Amino acid sequence: MRFSLPVLPMLRHTRVAVPRRLAPLVRIDHAAECDPRDLDLDPKAIGAVWRAVERLYRTGLHPAITLVLRRHGRIVLKRAIGCLRGNGPGERGPQVPLSPDAPLCLFSASKSVSALLIHKLAEQRRLRLDDLVVDYVPEFGAHGKHRVTIRQLLAHRAGVPALPDVEPTPELLRDWDRAVQLLCAARPFDQHFERQAYHALTAGYIVGEIVRRVGRIDLRDALRQWLAQPLGCRYLTYGLPEAQRDDAPRHWMTGPRPIGPLARYVRNVIGVEFAAAVAASNTDAFLSSIVPAGNIYASADDASRVFQMLLAGGEFEGRRVLHAQTVAEAVHPVGRIQIDGTLRVPIRFSAGFMLGEEPFGLFGPHCGQAFGHLGFVSVLCWADPRRDIAVALLNTGKSVAPSGLLRLIGVLTAIARACPPLR
User: Are 126 and 214 in contact (CB under 8 A)?
Assistant: First the structure.
């Protein structure tokens, strides 16, 4: 027997049918999870984290959710709830529960992983973060952009948060050289490059072009050789090979469609209409392209490995992936907190990461030392040194419904309570 949360009839088709009993849709990797008591954690508090995830699922806004929570480097939770297929809004067919190891798109959380490729080149002394972008991509200097540094590019201060009069269509995603050409020719909105304005997709192409030219390496190869292989990741790739696409759930727009000022705000942030962005994320163009700022696919375990490595100063399971100084440079704040010109909220960035705040920030309560990234509304990947945790919360529903935001805050709060700051 199933039920849906009460919604207006015109919106009912945009929600997932949620059964009363969630157990048939939950998959737990028992072999991976340790006993919370081994880490001096309260099993009841850890259980409350998962119940918060189940409450998020009960909104009907997410066909599938995966979570990996690490504390002191050990996995405390590795679980999935929902369906790989068969339970999207209006979808028909047999339900196939999602595996905790399924690949999901990180969306904008891809930015922090792509930024690490630049930091790897800096570690190899092939560039410096305070070098000018034009030192490596000379054509980027048009209209005064010759003053932009790589650090500013990574911290959303390059002045080109969007391309005016250019729609980021799936066809443009396939044309790397055209995207780079358009960005190089663009006029910056801030000639002094002091104002922070979130670059949803744009900066990623220039970041990728620097990696290609300086590293003389394809971005997929760089990601595989410098991060995915040393970390033992199953996926962690730009897009997804055709052979693996049956393992990945599709993305769904759920809840009410953004209208009015909210629709304009969303379009300003992501560059296209909300529904169009969700639809594009399921196309072959998106799955086959390299979009450094938006289309890395990873399991929650893969993503948590990246942040666990950063949390441990560049090491993972005894392997040195990045130097400790490289990690410190990557998460160091760039400038003071300010109202972001695109997001319209106060937020700090490092050279590649969104940073936590006190008393409450993007990663929950008292997360002032945390660093990570948000992806398309509700994907969250982060590390918090104060609590010694690395977390990846991935999902397939794309929604602006307030209930989803409130339940997501509930998950963050439950994690903070279950994993208290270290003494």
Answer: yes
